Every structure is written in C-alpha cells, then in structure tokens.
Automatic annotation (TrEMBL):
Key words of the record: DNA-binding, Transcription, Transcription regulation
Presence of keyword Cell wall biogenesis/degradation: no
Name of the protein this chain belongs to: IclR family transcriptional regulator
Keyword Flavoprotein: no
Classification via Pfam families: HTH_IclR (PF09339), IclR_C (PF01614)
Span of domain IclR-ED: 71-255
Domain HTH iclR-type: 7-70
Organism: Sinomonas flava
SUPFAM superfamilies xrefs: GAF domain-like (SSF55781), Winged helix' DNA-binding domain (SSF46785)
Amino acid sequence: MSDIQGTQVVGRVALLMRIVAKAGGTGLSLPGIVRTSGLSRPTVHRLLKALAANGLLDLDEASGRWHLGPELYVMGTVAAGRFAVEHLARPALRRLAEATGESAFLSIRRGEETVCLAREEGSFPVRSFVLYEGVRFPLGVASAGIAILAFLPEAEAEAIIDDDGERTERFGPTHAAGPLRDRLAQTRELGYSVNPGLVVEGSYGLGAAVFDPAGRPAWALSLTGIEPRFRPGRREELGELLLAEAHRLSTAIAAPRP
C-alpha cells in the first residue's frame, strides 16, 4: 500500500468513527453511515467490519445500528491520565450549577467542532436539552463554539468564519459569516458568549473560553436554560460567574502537575 493510499484509509476510518460518535447512544445504521460519509456502501461495510474486529466499533445485531466499541473505552481511560481536564472541571461545573440552578457544561475543541464532555444538572426543574455528552457543534454554533472561536488567532478564525455554507444550511442564516462576526465581537467585548436561542428557539446559552498553557482557547464552560432565566440583569450575573470559573480552570490547567 502506498503512503497516499494508507493516509486515505486512515482518513476514512477516522471519518466513520466520528460519524458514529456523533450519533450518540442511538447509534447509526449502515445506510445512514453511507449517506453521511459519501463513501460507497462496499467501502463503508468493509471498514466497519475491520473496525468491529478490532473492538473500535460495535454492531447491535438486534437493531442493525453501529456504536462505538469497547476498545475505545479502554483507550479513553488511558488517555484520561494525560487529558484530565474533565476531572479538573468537575468542581467548577458543580459550583456553577449550584449557584445558578442552570445546567453547566464542559466542551472541548476538536478541529473545527466542539464536543460536549461533561455536564452538571442545575436545580431549576425546566431545562434545555440542546447540550449533552458527546454532542458536536461547528465552531461558531452554540455558546461554547462561539466563545472558543472568538479568541482564536485572527487568521485561523477568519478561515472558519468565511466557510459558512454548511453551517448556514444546517443552522440557518443567523450563522452566516456576517451575523457570526457580530456575535464574536460582542463576545470579545463581554468576555463571554451569548447564544440567544439560535440553535433551539427559547433555549439560551452563555459560554466562556478556557485556555491551555499556551494561551489558546481549547475548552469552554457554558450554562444553558430557558429564555426567562437569561434576561438582561441576570444574564450579566451568570456571565461573571462563568468568567470567574473559566479563569480558575485555565489557571489549574496551566499549573504544573506531578
């Protein structure tokens, strides 16, 4: 196999695993994976069988749907020792949920997306269900992705902002380059992002970027809830709480650990 062919196979394997991961706990059927990937059915079937043989994917025979496999759990457990941000973030999520009554989340940047890693439910009985563990959004969509994108280097951010075709098709014209630039400018001014029900009507979110030791926005803390809980006045209070916890978490991430 040539280097080019080998790289192509690795890229296709990664694509299929991301597609299955995006489906979350419901899994995805073979036709769904073929449709989403744009690859031929024989190619997808061959790669899925190879991934299943190695424990990276798993087929539920009863439903015919594919899920992430058990070997990924093992790998994730090993990797957690190096990327232990979720462990560091848990106290911040608890404090935010307890202080506000809203649901608090930690998301991580992966390429041009954010992935929700952890959540802590608040005490308020009416909740927003836009975010949950494993859900992915493009950068610039939802409060976490807006907060991260706002503090990326300008050239890197502009390339993502300008590439708005798929983002606009999936999430509507409010996510086109122009309106997104306005939200990013507001985020830089406030320090935190505001998503005023743009993904799901009536579901508000605030986000604050969390920085890695090199000063790059790599994660975000966010709060979500229904619109009446995020009106002016209280929104500013929530934003200040988010910024304080994001700063505390960024400091903890940068601190030397044994």
